[in-house]
Amino acid sequence: MTNNSTTTDSKRYAWVDYAKGIAIILVVYRHLAYGLLAKGIEMPASIIAANDMLYSFRMPLFFLLSGAFFVRSLSKRGENSFVFNKINTLLYPYLLWAIVQITLQIVFSAYTNSSRTLADYLDIFLQPRKLDQLWYLFALFNVTILYLTVNLLTKGNKYIHLLIGLVFLGFSPTIREYSALYDIMLHYIFFAVGDFGAKFFFQENVQQRLSNPQYLFFSFFVFIGLQFYYLFHQDMNMFLYLPIALYGCLFVIQLSSCLAASNKLQFFRTIGHYSLYIYLLHVSIAAILREILIRSGLTNGTILLVILIPSAISLSLLIYKCCVKFGFSFLFTGQFKVKQRSKSVSLQ
Fold first, then answer.
1. Pair 80, 338: CB distance under 8 Å
2. Distances in Å between the alpha carbon of 224 and those of 147, 230, 252?
3. What backbone phi and psi angles, to 5 degrees, belong to 164?
4. What are the pLDDT digits (tens) for 62-79?
5. Residue 258's closest CA among 201, 208, 219?
6. Which of 64, 106, 322, 340 has the most C-beta neighbours closer than 10 Å?
7. At 316, which helix (H) or strand (E)?
8. Domain of 150?
9. Which of 3-12, 118-127, 307-316, 336-345 is predicted with the least confidence, judged by mean pLDDT?
């Protein structure tokens, strides 16, 4: 009974891993393309334009998916364990890898695109956007903890969350220079939408509609039109940006549902399942590979990108699995726990 239930849940949530897989590939694509540009490698304008066109929804999708599992995770773990889980899986790896990455960039400054000093360690808390890709983990942790706090104060009123998210979104451009706060205000609404829409996303009849190829076909043209508009209006009003980003999220969810229902292109699902570890590792791995390839005489931007994207993803998976196998899982997950004594809860 337990095994059958687990298998059913795995199939039921397969689209989530597909969606994360698609999103993380787009993230890697962007980071590596702009990394090549920063290294002085020429890239075709079409590759950069396609990258920018698909920028609106990538990170909002991660926040939306996290919000969709908020109630489930909170109900399963309880408040204290929930917080410690987020410390272990978001804050801990963020702090550890931010310190590691800054240190490596200082030591190997001659081979990286970043010019780091000791002052950059302060940006771990003040300006996480300056730390390349790592800002997302800190932003998701902050949004999740703030959302939990508001949830407790409002007794789970989802409409208040949506209202707060809209207010935050409207004011977010005014604090763009302070990225720690900006990322909270920009992404809170997507977490709230994920939580609000969770009861719909996981319904069987909704999943059947989302996985219908005919709906996906018509949705594709709307998706392309909206993202094309975004490409040329990236400084648009935030309340115009919101539906464009949300529709991008919806399209990826539709595509993911279709792939999950047909059980096709399962490598997307595998990549999505390990998306967090790919996120942590791919920039450093790609930097090493990029330097090796360029020094070997390969300077074609398109060829470099085609080589680097799958290589960075594959090596990230390999390194993560090797670390876990040989007892280095502490590099990715903290070990802080809530110790239960009788019926009371105390922190260990």
1. yes
2. 32, 10, 12
3. -60, -45
4. 999 999 999 999 999 999
5. 208
6. 64
7. helix 301-325
8. 2-347
9. 3-12
What does the block give as tokens for 136?
Answer: 């997302």
pLDDT at 112: 66
Nearest Cα neighbor of 196 from 60, 67, 61, 13 is: 67
- d(CA 94, CA 9) in angstroms, rounded, equals 29
The model's pTM is: 0.90
* 3-state secondary structure (DSSP) of residue 347: strand
Cα–Cα distance measured from residue 256 to residue 188, given in angstroms and rounded to the nearest whole number: 23
pLDDT, residue 12, reads 63
Compute the distance between CA of residue 248 and CA of residue 341 in angstroms, rounded to an integer: 46
The C-alpha atoms of residue 168 and residue 186 are separated, in whole angstroms, by 7
Residue identified by tokens 């302070």 is 178
Pinpoint the alpha helices (H) of 79-212.
79-86, 92-107, 135-153, 158-171, 179-201, 204-210
Contacts with 200 (C-beta within 8 Å, 6 or more apart), sequence order: 206
Torsion of CA 150, 151, 152, 154, to 10 degrees: 80
Q: Which helix (H) or strand (E) holds 294?
A: helix 275-295
Tokens 């490698």 label which residue? 41
Total tally of structural domains belonging to the chain: 1
Concatenated DSSP letters of 207-276 = HHHHT-HHHHHHHHHHHHHHHHHHHH-TT--HHHHHHHHHHHHHHHHHHHHHHHHHT--HHHHHHHHTHH
Q: CA gyration radius for the chain?
A: 20
Question: Residue 127 carries which DSSP code?
Answer: -
